[in-house]
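U., I forgot to send this yesterday:
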Amino acid sequence: MDLNAMAETYQQKSKICFILGASGETGKVLLKEIMKSNIFSKITLIGRRQLNFEDESCENLVQKVVDFEKLDEYAGVFQGHDVGYCCLGTTKAKAGDEGFVRVDHDYVLKAAELAKAGGCSHFHLESSKGADKTSSFLYLKTKGQVEADIEILGFERLSIYRPAVLLVDRQESRPAEWMVRKFLGPLSSIFPTALSIPITSVTRAMVVNTLMDGEHKVEILENKAIYSLGKI
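Result:
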């Protein structure tokens, strides 16, 4: 697989993408990966606040600030993008049960609806290992439900990523995750696809997958598949 040739071919198509959740850990790394690949003629960051970058200055990067509680009023922001990456999310600890569902389901679904209406053909959704709309755990149930609801929208191509615990040093404190990363970090070098995955593998997989022709309209990439794709 000649990724350089694929990237050059893709670049010639002058496609435009947007990233939701660029202020989060995955979104920040994804932005760097996309900018390094230079495959899009324009990159739009859609979020609740303006972000300041020290080393990501780029002529084709624009930012659009929206109110997620009134997303319908910002439909124009989603117009004209070929590809969309959604890394939007919060935690129950930070937002409470209701707030978590509002962000990880309601905001994400509404953004996907506006993206579809605006012409987006390939939608990438960062979900979670174990996502299942029938789960008794709110986190996994919410992730599974939003996957199912977005699938109904009928994107030409929908790529769903279900990574395990992300190996990344978060700016915000998540004690439980820190403990998991502390023990899984060393283990990942031996069994890299078991229970954890480097965040760079996830973002790399998203970009590589963008260049590839999808065999299925809806594809679900579990942790092992993400890791393998991220190594290409």
